[in-house]
Design goal:
Length: about 140
Amino acid sequence: MFDASDDAKSEYRRIEVLTGPGRRRRWSADEKARIVAETLLPGARVSEVARRWQVCSQQVFGWRRAARQDVTRGLAKSAGPCAPSFVPIVTEDIPHAAASPPGTAATVIEVKLAGAVVRIGSDLSDAGPLTTVLRAVRASASRT
């Protein structure tokens, strides 16, 4: 027969202390937005904000990723499916004295990105250099 006093005779008893919520919590969209906004403040650390709210930091990173995707989807929907996604071309008038003589048709394409300037001088009959520049612009935009 097992007696309650038998348990008291052993030297150590294991006690497990559970802190924080012991159940699955549901966060409203407002609470998630408040937590994500707190992590976006300058100098904020996700781990500290998560600890303060008693949430796993990976959960907060997931909420941040979802918020970024929601913003991206919202912009795409508001722009419409047929909206152009090209950068506008700005042309500058070249003074007449600096223009090339009428016999030569030298065209210069200049692309400025992140402090770098790419210039391609060719005639418009050959689309190869222009295609190369536009592919490089597209590749650099997809990396950011």
